[in-house]
UniProtKB/TrEMBL annotation:
Domain D-isomer specific 2-hydroxyacid dehydrogenase NAD-binding: from-to ranges: 134-256
Entry GO MF terms: NAD binding; oxidoreductase activity, acting on the CH-OH group of donors, NAD or NADP as acceptor
Entries under InterPro entries matching the protein: D-iso_2-hydroxyacid_DH_PdxB, D-isomer_DH_CS, D-isomer_DH_NAD-bd, NAD(P)-bd_dom_sf
Pfam families: 2-Hacid_dh_C (PF02826)
Protein name: HprA protein
Keywords: NAD, Oxidoreductase
Family of this protein: Belongs to the D-isomer specific 2-hydroxyacid dehydrogenase family.
Organism: Symbiodinium pilosum
Length: 288
């Protein structure tokens, strides 16, 4: 295990099933240059979200037959290099399914009552909203009857989000592969085209893995089709949303600022420090 501390962050990890099955060597943290020497004589390399680039994979010893990603996403591993070396990859598709569903719905509820702006105001000692007993220009609305659009919405985590959203009285529409039949499912979820999802949704979540096909999936064309009042909740990988296109849409007021909250401030994975600063500057500028 290259970076056990990333997985066992609270010290409660039970490795007994692994140690009972095989000889197990664990490192809390590994630097990139330590991966190859630490893999000498190993059959399996276990990893948690740490980037393993192609040059490292090509340099792994012949003994390595499997890279086990201890999470859902495996975009941190160079797949082409693994194919070249004949090294298999496995992941944990249902990892944090419940937690991610709770997370997305929590963000929906927080956005519906402008929780973040209220907290920010209180942190600065501003009790205006409390004294006037209403939120003024801030959003505050019922989520029952609102439409939640989930891109790639038939997977494990997405289906869990759908179930929770339906229980709250929301309408759920999802898009999937072009070959997927459109229409209502027994679960209460309606499969629609991506265009229809973008046009109709009040909340939009991309629930797809990050790869060469999904990087920048939510781009300027998508933002043009969204309602100006739409919220984008990205609990998947950050680069699925085209950062520059989002910033451009905000500047041109194609989208209201609200679209930014969950999309990037809660998922910094893959963002450059420059773009984080640009996004944060927009929040401060427009909220204040």
């Amino acid at each position: 295990m290259l970076n056990a501390a990333r997985l066992d962050f609270d010290g409660r990890m039970d490795w007994s099933k692994v140690t009972n099955a095989t000889e197990f060597t664990s490192y809390d943290i590994s630097a990139t240059e330590e991966i190859v020497p630490r893999s000498q004589g190993m059959d399996i390399v276990m990893n948690k979200e740490f980037p393993i680039p192609g040059d490292i994979i090509r340099a792994l010893p012949p003994s390595v037959k499997l890279i086990a990603e201890a999470g859902t996403g495996y975009n941190n591993i160079d797949l082409d290099a693994c194919r070249e070396r004949g090294i298999a990859i496995c992941n944990v598709p249902e990892y944090t399914t419940e937690a991610m569903g709770d997370y997305a719905i929590t963000l929906v509820m927080a956005l519906s009552c402008s929780l973040a702006p209220q907290m920010k105001a209180l942190a600065k000692g501003d009790r205006t909203y409390m004294h006037q007993c209403h939120l003024g220009h801030l959003d505050h609305f019922e989520i029952r009857g609102k439409t939640y659009g989930i891109i790639g919405g038939l997977g494990y985590i997405a289906s869990n989000i759908s179930k929770k959203a339906l229980q709250l009285g929301m309408k759920v529409i999802v898009s999937d592969m072009p070959s997927t039949p459109l229409g209502m499912r027994d679960s209460g979820v309606e499969v629609v085209t991506l265009d229809d999802l973008l046009k109709k949704s009040d909340f939009i979540s991309p629930m797809v893995p990050l790869n060469k096909h999904t990087k920048g999936l939510l781009n300027s064309e998508c933002f043009d089709k969204m309602k100006p009042s739409a919220y984008v909740i990205n609990t998947a990988r950050g680069p699925i949303v085209d950062q520059d296109a989002l910033i451009d849409a905000l500047r041109k007021k194609k989208l209201e600022l609200k679209t930014i909250f969950a999309s990037f401030l809660f998922e910094p994975y893959g963002l450059t420090s420059m773009n984080i600063c640009r996004l944060l500057s927009w929040e401060v500028c427009m909220l204040d």
